[in-house]
Amino acid sequence: MENGVNGKKNWVFCDGDLPPHGDNPNFMGHEALMITNVGKEDAHIRIKVLFEDKEPYDKITIDLKGERTTCLRLDFPIGKEKYQIPFGQYALHIISDVPVCACFGRLDVRQSNMAYYSLSGYSF
């Protein structure tokens, strides 16, 4: 907690790499971005997608009411713009006008002992 404020205005998740969906409809491979606004003020959020081999896409926007959370499945179109992140390596930069909390998770079904794990982000 910084100056009585929970969360940060910037979050970076460096290890984006959408896994294939797999063959089991009950456990589809995917990545997800969870954002929680623990404050009372609404958050206006922009998501920038950075790539290894092309220019960033920085026009994804979402609004998140105060004291609410959202989970964005990254294998589906996201934001007001319904942007579809392409398969392959990418990173996310989340920029909010008020402090929020964010985490990133992946369900990888490429092996029979599938794994769901979350990735820590860098916040500032």
Word description of this protein:
With 124 residues, the protein is an all-beta fold. It has a domain at 1-12 and 40-98: TM1070-like (Hypothetical Protein Tm1070, Chain: A), CATH 2.60.290. It is 0% helix and 55% strand. It has strands at residues 8-17, 30-37, 43-51, 57-64, 68-73, 89-108, 115-119, 122-123. Strands 1, 2, 3, 4, 5, 6, 7 and 8 form an 8-stranded antiparallel sheet that branches. Strand 3 and strand 4 (57-64) form a beta hairpin. The protein is globular. The termini are close together.
What's this model, at a glance?
The protein is 0% helix and 55% strand.
What are its keywords?
single chain, 124 residues, mainly beta, Hypothetical Protein Tm1070, Chain: A, eight-stranded antiparallel β-sheet, 8 strands, globular
List the helices and strands and how they pair.
Layout: E1 8-17, E2 30-37, E3 43-51, E4 57-64, E5 68-73, E6 89-108, E7 115-119, E8 122-123
Antiparallel strand pairs: 1-6, 1-8, 2-5, 2-6, 3-4, 3-6, 6-7
Major sheet attributes? 8 strands, antiparallel
Number of strands: 8
Helix content: under 10%
Q: Runs with pLDDT <50, length 5+?
A: none
